[in-house]
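thread from #wetlab-drylab

HS: before we spend reagent money on co-crystallization trials with flavin-adenine dinucleotide, can we at least see a predicted complex? here's what I'd submit
DV: go for it
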Amino acid sequence: MRGERFITSLNDGRMVWLNGMKVTQLDAHPAFRGTLATLRSLFDTLDDPQTRDQAGYRIDGREAYAHSSFLVPYTSEQLAQRSRAFAYWSKQCNGMMSRLSDYARSFITGWYAARQELDRLEPGFAQKITAYYEQVRDNDLFLTTAIIDPQIDRSSGLDDHRIASRFLHVVKETSDGIVVRGAKMIATGAPYTHDFVIFSFLKLEQAHRQHAHVLIVPANSPGLHIVCRQSFASDKEHDAPLSASYDEMDAVLFFDDVLIPWERVLMYGDADKVMSLRAHATANALAFHQNVVRYVAKLEFITGVTFAVAEAIGVSGFLHIQEKLGELLTQIDSIKALVIASEAQAKVDANGVLIPELSYIHTARNIGTKFYPRAVEILQQVGGGGFVQIPSSIEDFYGTISGLMNQYFEGATVSAEKKVQLFKLAWDLVGSPLGSRHELYERFYAGDPVRGYANQYLMFDKESLTAPIWKLIKESAKRGAMHTEIK
Ligand SMILES: Cc1cc2nc3c(=O)[nH]c(=O)nc-3n(C[C@H](O)[C@H](O)[C@H](O)COP(=O)(O)OP(=O)(O)OC[C@H]3O[C@@H](n4cnc5c(N)ncnc54)[C@H](O)[C@@H]3O)c2cc1C
């Protein structure tokens, strides 16, 4: 089964740092064990005849299945197949893992789909991306992105040597490739990724050619250090069921003179070309589509937990609680509707690819930054102090005070033990380190939300809205003048 193959493949000499130590065997470490078990089961869905059509597709009529994030959509059915796969994997982990590789893989699929156009921009690109796309697809490689430069001093830029020397840049060109130095901040899933898709979010000037690149970097590259944040994983399934299985881990990457072979340098040295690749509409539409499809599963999950909490403590009949529960449903429907709209209004682009309509996806990504934090707030408002009245362990149900436990923890509609389990699950959403990380993730994963909204305004065809206003003003002025003449 490919889940096992995936786990074994991670013992490849990568340098993963956690708590000041190098982690030598990821699947034996408590910080990664639970998450890797989740990933193993997701990979296995591609081998299971019951599930493989939900997660994957047959490559060119071959027996083998690949994940549908590799499927280039030329028809609505193929686009729907991609959507189903994103939804399926997300639902399998209750929306609690957002970077299941399908986002980063979609960039590769998009660049591959647009290879002829991109080859005109950078001769040789088509051959490079085709070889890489086939390798990743046929070997189930796990990918993640690392785009943001380290948060050192945001008021300063690349003209400041202190910044330029720490942001990822090329220090040497050789016949084998380029040597890069610097750091990238936050790569979710970094410890168990095979390759990183690396580029900068900055709008670079031509003068900054050393910083202008789009790279594929193997996780076991010599000189690459994967520096993990504190682990939020728990080994107590009963107490923290989400933290036990879904800590997808985030890491900073240090590149201590890492050689990137030319076949993994997708673009380098020309700021405009790099921008054309990293902002390419085909790749962005396919990748951002994954972001919003998976979000539905997450909103459905927190809504389900909130409904259950409201019923368990007998508050679902109160009007203000119903108003809040209704608000959660409007969140789900809003994102679902935007997904449907983006797919229904998908257009065939210059490369013949059917890409989802990006304006709806941008809207979903932007409003989504406010939805999940609000959903967490609603869960807190509904559960009140119930989250902190839960006992430290459900073991107490089987000990000396078992009778008292069953009496005093009883809920309106559920037994004491079930109620305690429910509130532990809910606490993992609203109060655990993993829960806080998810709230932060939804605020920021799509970039700075302030600039996200501003970009939506800047990119919009504003005249389509202002022209009717000026027309109305002109016509009313004309009518006013005629009225005065008649008088
Ligand atoms: C949990 C988590 C996981 C993530 N995973 C990934 C990942 O896998 N891959 C990846 O590439 N990225 C990932 N990100 C990074 C994410 O893309 C960034 O956090 C996001 O782009 C915001 O950038 P920043 O965190 O550097 O914030 P900053 O840009 O430093 O912003 C901090 C504050 O300063 C303000 N600010 C800063 N600069 C400006 C400016 N020039 N103009 C106006 N306001 C400014 C912002 O509005 C914000 O309020 C992840 C983030 C989180 C929280």
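DV: The longest strand covers residues 177-188.
HS: ok that's useful, forwarding to the group
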